[in-house]
Design goal:
The protein is mostly beta strands and about 150 residues long. It is built from 4 helices and 10 strands, in the order αββββαααββββββ. The mean pLDDT is about 90.
């Protein structure tokens, strides 16, 4: 079947620590990322989108946190967030054995051109670069969540 632009994108809304985040996501049939222990699907989101929802101590130290180095993170922030963190392995054309820091969210609303869906079984994978050069979307969502 023919795929149009409206089939490739959706809007997503989720909350982290009470902060609502809304963005356009590309539906990525190749996004099979899952949290390996619980098999929870992962939505990959640009870290810059999370600046109002997560402390900069976390966003500026993603690699260190993944390596277990929490020395740059205050005790208060550790107590609040460490239990929500997940390590998400991924493979892509640019990186065969990559790792993303993920954070569990309470729920996510996914709005395609013809329906809205609410689910509470999702982890946000924090990507520290831009997903596109022109900013057409700021998240990648797997087809199984649609």
């Amino acid at each position: 079947t023919k795929i149009t632009a409206k089939d490739m994108y959706c809007k997503i809304r989720f909350k982290i620590d009470g902060q609502l985040i809304e963005t356009r996501a590309m539906i990525d049939t190749g996004n099979l990322a899952k949290e390996p222990i619980t098999n929870t699907p992962v939505v990959i989101v640009e870290s810059s989108l999370l600046e109002k929802a997560l402390p900069l101590q976390i966003l500026n130290n993603l690699e260190k946190i993944l390596c277990g180095d929490l020395s740059q993170i205050s005790e208060e922030i550790q107590e609040k967030y460490v239990s929500k963190f997940r390590c998400i392995p991924f493979s892509s054309l640019g990186k065969q054995n990559g790792m993303l820091l993920g954070i569990r969210v309470d729920e996510i609303e996914i709005e395609t051109y013809d329906e809205k869906k609410l689910t509470n079984n999702v982890i946000i994978g924090i990507y520290d670069k831009s997903l596109t050069k022109r900013g057409e979307y700021r998240a990648l969502i797997g087809i199984e969540l649609i």
